[in-house]
Amino acid sequence: MSKVHLHEDIKSPWFWGIVGLVGTALLGTIGMGVIAGFSNPGLVAEDYYETGKNYFHQIPDVETHWRLNILPPAKVQLHQPQRYRLYAIDQQGNPMEVGEAKLHAYRPSDASKDFELAMAWEDRGTMAVMAQFDLPGIWDVKAQFTHEGKSQEVIQRVFVEKP
Question: What is d(CA 23, CA 27) in angstroms, rounded to the nearest whole number?
Fold first, then answer.
């Protein structure tokens, strides 16, 4: 390639258009990284991602292995109190009648809106609580059941919709 062709290529509007596009994309990426670094709200649980990655790979302790199931509403609506149920079955398949449970709601992108509520017995094997979400989007709902000093939890992801 000769110097003449290189000089002509640099004068081309196509060349400068591509350089401008790449430069704009690079500056935008750097700007978003800086904004994310300064506006990060943090997470309530310091090991949120490690816990989430390992949650389904952990082998539960046989002594505390109850069958737990969270039943959220069919459609989770923003700013509307709705009932969340926890079903607890013991190792023999009988509904649990004694124990305590808490419902934790985590918003991965905004820890300031996370909350925790105590659940109450509704029926044999069923605990419930009324919960209301203040932000739309994805939330992780965790129910932690404790009985005779042993604890087990179950996690479910819900999507909060605007009414």
Answer: 6
